[in-house]
Every structure is written in C-alpha cells, then in structure tokens.
Amino acid sequence: MKNHQITIIDIAKELNISKSTVSRALTGHPNVKSETRKAVLDLAEKMDYQRNMLSISLITNKSYTIGIIVPEFMTSFFPQVVVGAQEEAAKAGYNVIINQSNENYKTEVANSKVMLSSQVDGVLVSMSKETRNYDHLKKFQRKGIPIVFFNRVCDEMMVPKVVVNDHDAAFRAVEHLIQTGHKRIAHLAGPDSLAISRKRLNGYLDALKKYDIPFSEDLVIQYDLTLSKVKIYIKHLMSLDPRPDALFAVNDPTAIEAMQVIKKMGLRIPEDVAIVGFGDNYGSSFIEPSLTTVSQPVQEIGRTAMTLLLGMINKDMSQWKAVTKSLEAKLIIRNSSKANKKTL
C-alpha cells in the first residue's frame, strides 16, 4: 500500500486554516503572521511535509535555488565561504547548487550553463584563475538573474562584490617584515588576471615605497598558482646574490610550499628567510614553524554575499545597486617571521 504524501491540505485541516495561508507561510510571504508561520513550519516538520518545488516555482515564478560557482575546494577558504552562504540561504528558505571550476575557464562556462538550465534565482561567483572573458557571466545579467561576486571579482561588471581589504592587508604583512629588520623581500604573486593578485602586489610595492626600500624586479615573480612550480621559483630566488631575507606569498598554499622547499635547501625559517602568507588556511598554524599570515573572515564573506544576493532577488531590477563590501582582514603573527634582526 502506497504511503500518503503529506500535502498543504493536511496541514491546513490540522491547523484549521486555509490552504492558501499554508502556502503563503511555506513560501515566506510577508502577509502571514509570525505565529501562524511558526505553527505551519513546526507542523510541516512534524508531519515530514516535503515541499513540491515544481509547483511552488510555477506559482511564485521562483525556483528557490541559488547557484554558487567557486574555483577550487583544495584549500579551506572556499568551503568555509560556502558554509556561511548556505546558512543565510537556508534561513530564507533557499536551496543551494554548488559547482567548482577546478581553476578551469571552460569548466566555469559549463558550470554557468548548469546554473541557467537549473533556473536558479541568483548566483554567487568567484572566478577561476584562467577567466579573462566574462560573456558567460554577463548572460545572467541579460536574463535578469542577479549575480554577486566574492573574493575573485570581475571589475568589468557593475554588480555587487564582496572582498577583503587585500591591498591594506598585504601592506601590513610586508610592513611587518620590514619592521622586523628585513629589507630584501621577495614576493611570489598570483596571476595578473586576478584583481586580488594585483591588489596584494600593490600593497607590497606601497610598503616598500613607504620605507624607502628600492624595488627590485628580480624579487617579484607572478605565477599561475600551480603549486608544483613553486619549487622552481624558490630555488631561483634563493640563488640570487644577495638572496632574499624574506618572502611574502600571495596565499598560504604558496607560502607553505615555499617553506618546504626552503627547509630542504638547508635554510632556516625565519633566521635565514622569514615568510608571510595570506589566507590563514587550515594547517597554517600547525606547520613548523607556524606561518605568519593574513586571516580573512571567510564565513562572513559567504554570509555577506548571500545577503546581498537575496536582497536583489526580493527587489525589482531597477532597485539593484552595484555595491562593494570590503571586509577587514587581520595580520596573524606567528613563528615564521618572528623578529630576528635589529628593527627599524
């Protein structure tokens, strides 16, 4: 015998209210009293009611689904951002579809097509390192689907963005190295296609300028974030005469990989080479020596981006604003850069 599927009619009978009131309560309609909404939601959970999303989408012209596209899940940064975003989406009654591009432009384009075919109500995006053409993302705008960028943003598109103060945080990281007596500071930078790479590089340059330390092109290497290449670049930097006495890395995975190479070369950290990363990824505090890095409010990035997106979904397009939210990142000083020289 087939089990009875609980419907809004069953909930309406149990609470002695109309099925239209139940429907409005389940879809978050503002004209339903808070006590009525709570009673409906509590009973729906007790009776194991499963929302018919197809029917709801036909009624409301919404899928109650939000897409999230990220470049990778290899580090702890993007999973933590997604956790924050999902929390906000769940509060508003939205499901989430998550795709990762594996740092590949073609995969990112395919991900965007999946989101469109799934008829998402909005999308959060952090671009791959290869992305230089944005037509696949502009398609969301043309179709009236709200889009919010976070972390890796597209400057060409006038849409909301959530970032951290990359320039200022990088400046403070390099300033810390200078103030602990280091003057020949190398920088392993990210690809120029990413705004975060450019901002962190500019923070590095501005810190050198403030303290009248001459810039040397030999000490800056921009690379595509492929960690297997770090060994080549570090060996090159350490072969310079004189060699760098400090390294500022574009992110923690780069810094940690550099530390392994430097230690295998017989050099001491921080006595011979001090190192600062960016991100405070999982493992940064456990590596030996522990890594000085910039800590980002990762879950807050996700919550802020999702809040902006939900606000757009619930407004007419004419009310959308291309705001940029810049969150504070903080320098966490650990053993990889402790003072070992005369400070300035």
UniProtKB/TrEMBL annotation:
<dbReference type="InterPro" id="IPR000843">
    <property type="entry name" value="HTH_LacI"/>
</dbReference>
<keyword id="KW-0804">Transcription</keyword>
<feature type="domain" description="HTH lacI-type">
    <location>
        <begin position="6"/>
        <end position="60"/>
    </location>
</feature>
<dbReference type="InterPro" id="IPR028082">
    <property type="entry name" value="Peripla_BP_I"/>
</dbReference>
<dbReference type="GO" id="GO:0003700">
    <property type="term" value="F:DNA-binding transcription factor activity"/>
</dbReference>
<dbReference type="Pfam" id="PF00356">
    <property type="entry name" value="LacI"/>
</dbReference>
<dbReference type="InterPro" id="IPR010982">
    <property type="entry name" value="Lambda_DNA-bd_dom_sf"/>
</dbReference>
<keyword id="KW-0238">DNA-binding</keyword>
<protein>
    <submittedName>
        <fullName>LacI family transcriptional regulator</fullName>
    </submittedName>
</protein>
<keyword id="KW-0805">Transcription regulation</keyword>
<dbReference type="Pfam" id="PF00532">
    <property type="entry name" value="Peripla_BP_1"/>
</dbReference>
<dbReference type="InterPro" id="IPR001761">
    <property type="entry name" value="Peripla_BP/Lac1_sug-bd_dom"/>
</dbReference>
<dbReference type="GO" id="GO:0000976">
    <property type="term" value="F:transcription cis-regulatory region binding"/>
</dbReference>
